[in-house]
Design a protein that fits this description.
- The chain is of the alpha+beta class.
- The chain has a domain of 187 residues: putative capsid protein of prophage fold (Super Roll), CATH 3.15.30.
- The chain is 30% helix and 24% strand.
- The protein has 9 helices and 17 strands.
- The strands form 5 sheets. Strands 1, 4, 13, 14, 15 and 16 form a 6-stranded mixed β-sheet that branches. A 5-stranded mixed β-sheet has the order 7-17-12-8-9, with helices on both faces. A two-stranded antiparallel ribbon has the order 2-3.
- Helix 7 packs across helix 8.
- The longest helix has 36 residues.
Length: 376
């Protein structure tokens, strides 16, 4: 490897490989719980979709008879291309000079600053690619679709919505405005009855729902509901004979009551990332909120694993990059190289990935702030 691959003496190929062996970036994100990684050899892919449904019973047949064949529960497939996810950060000539200034000192503060300058951009590249996967996961599982716009993506802008094909019958709305899952309707709404209705509806179609996904602010509205408080207190009285005061339940007590009633449990998706537009203006966003920054959606799923985050090798990984240090972690390729006119150190993160929502037909989506049209 050419010595021109970096201007920074503190990071070479061996050091970068060793650094990645000690780092675990995946535990910062939710998406792998729902869309675990799955390798694919191609940028163009398809995923089979359909209801897994209830267990199909075998037949009782006479001895010396042929075994009856059962059909596979596949409703169809979704074709999709992997997305080219890219991010880079440049260490300027001024910052490189600052690095060598710190190198002249031996105190602990200088060493800490050197470490931040050497590996901070590396962390930035990996986390940035994974954060985009987190954003796609949040949008897909909260609404069933997403758009790429100038406000959420400094790259491709989609002309139409990327719709993952959730059945229209699985997209629900509230029965009336006073039933919205908001703190403003806390004395009139009844989230528990809606949960019971959707659970029963799914069961009739052969799906057993286990989890209800929502973000933290939506959970705050649910636990503030008078109907929710009465439900938890009533379940507690049935289970243990204890009468509780009218307090907002914790996630643990609400889930205990839901489980006791044979209903799916709540999982809070508490994930924030930063999006930066072409003008380099940054906005912190909740990945569960829609394009208008509303947290109106709640999703019911049969399991946490509802698909896969498909990924494949990047061209840069296959052909290599002349005069560059390259190493891979969490399926993200980090490429680092130097430029000399002017002097600069460039760190790039590369990932080809896209979520395949295989169990979309078994998920129910509720718009908790509409009683007319889903998403309106």
């Amino acid at each position: 490897m050419s010595d021109n691959s970096t201007l920074i003496t503190g990071i070479k190929q061996k050091e970068l490989d060793g650094y990645f062996q000690k780092r675990d970036y995946g535990n910062q994100f939710y998406f792998e719980k729902f869309f675990p990684w799955r390798w694919t050899p191609s940028l163009e892919n398809s995923v089979l979709v359909g209801k897994q449904g209830l267990n199909v019973a075998a037949d009782i047949i006479a001895f010396d008879s042929s075994t009856p064949e059962k059909k596979r529960k596949v409703a169809g497939k979704i074709d999709f291309d992997l997305a080219a996810i890219r991010i880079k950060r440049i260490m300027s000539e001024t910052q490189i000079n600052e690095y060598f200034t710190y190198k002249a000192y031996a105190n602990s503060d200088a060493k800490r600053r050197i470490g931040e300058m050497v590996y901070g951009d590396v962390d930035f590249a990996v986390i940035g690619c994974l954060a985009r996967c987190e954003w796609m996961f949040g949008q897909v599982l909260s609404t069933g679709y997403f758009n790429l716009s100038t406000t959420n993506n400094n790259g491709v802008v989609t002309q139409t919505t990327i719709d993952f094909g959730v059945p229209a019958g699985n997209r629900e709305v509230c029965s009336a405005a006073d039933q919205y899952w908001t703190t403003g309707a806390k004395t009139t709404n009844d989230p528990i009855s809606v949960i019971e209705t959707i659970t029963a509806e799914a069961r009739e179609s052969g799906v057993r729902l286990k989890y209800i996904l929502m973000n933290r602010s939506k959970f705050s509205a649910v636990r503030a509901s008078s109907a929710t408080i009465d439900f938890v207190n009533g379940q507690l009285l049935i289970d243990s004979g204890v009468v509780q005061t009218a307090m907002k339940p914790s996630i643990a007590s609400l889930n205990a009551a839901l489980k006791g009633a044979g209903l799916p449990e709540i999982v809070i998706i508490d994930s924030l990332i930063t999006l930066e537009d072409e003008a380099h203006d940054q906005t912190n966003v909740d990945v569960w909120e829609d394009s208008s920054n509303a947290d109106r959606y709640v999703t019911f799923v049969p399991d946490l694993n509802v698909g896969n985050m498909y990924y494949c090798n990047t061209a840069e990984e296959l052909v290599g990059k002349k005069s560059a240090i390259q190493s891979k972690t969490n399926n993200v390729l980090v490429s680092r190289w130097a430029e000399h006119d002017p002097a600069a150190e460039i760190t790039q993160g590369l990932l080809n990935a896209f979520p395949g929502f295989a169990r979309k037909d078994e998920a129910w989506f509720l718009d908790t702030e509409s009683h007319t049209t889903y998403g309106a």
